[in-house]
Design a protein that fits this description.
Elements: H1 9-16, E1 28-41, E2 44-56, E3 61-69, H2 72-85, E4 88-89, E5 101-105, E6 108-114, E7 121-122, H3 125-134, E8 139-143, H4 149-161, H5 173-200
């Protein structure tokens, strides 16, 4: 008896389906902290959630945002949108910070220092996460004030935003000459005019 041949059409149809590849995320989104907050109303207390999120591309751009929502997912989504709207560009030098910097935001007091290659990130908690997302490979840090995570996050962002690129330093020889020249011109011009007036008189 001849056995029916299996056409394999079912397998072919399955194989024809295009494979869906997961899209690569453009930004690295990390949740730093989630709090449950309460608001007192006439009928009692209304609970909501507050999320602190950092977003960065690990290529010198980073932002921090905080927002509230009815549930954790809503709070994280809103905070992510806020962080993306408040991106800053970080000036780095060979994978580390160009210079030492110290900032204060409310009670938080953050100190950041550059480090040699191979040191890694000597930082903890919120500061470490923000530096990683910003693309900093080597750095030293110290928290000298409050441990409030929101204030610490904003103090770290303020420090990164205040960094001055190496090519704009005053100690750079070319820049220093320009600054000195401008100052000297301001002093010399009035004196030259006064001497010219005396000679004409």
């Amino acid at each position: 008896m001849a056995q029916p041949q299996n056409s394999g059409q079912g397998n072919d149809r399955r194989n024809r389906r295009p494979e869906i590849q997961p899209e690569e995320k453009q930004f690295d989104e990390r949740t730093l902290h989630i709090d449950r907050v309460a608001r007192v109303v006439k009928g009692g207390r209304r609970f909501r959630f507050r999320a602190l999120v950092v977003v960065g591309d690990k290529k010198h751009r980073v932002g921090v945002g905080t927002a509230k929502g009815a549930d954790v997912t809503a709070a994280v989504t809103k905070a992510t949108e806020v962080a993306k709207k408040n991106f800053i560009s970080v000036s780095l030098y060979k994978g580390t910070l160009p210079h030492e910097i110290e900032t204060k935001v409310s009670g938080a007091h953050i100190l950041l220092k550059p480090a040699s290659a191979g040191t890694g990130l000597i930082a903890g908690g919120v500061v470490r996460t923000i530096l990683e997302v910003a693309g900093v490979s080597n750095a030293l840090s110290k928290s000298l004030g409050s441990t409030n995570k929101i204030n610490t996050a904003y103090a770290t962002i303020a420090a990164l935003d205040a960094l001055v690129p190496a090519n704009k330093w005053i100690t750079n020889s070319g820049t220093a000459k320009k600054v000195v020249t401008k100052k000297v011109e301001k002093i010399i011009k009035p004196v030259a005019k006064a001497e010219t007036a005396k000679s004409e008189a």
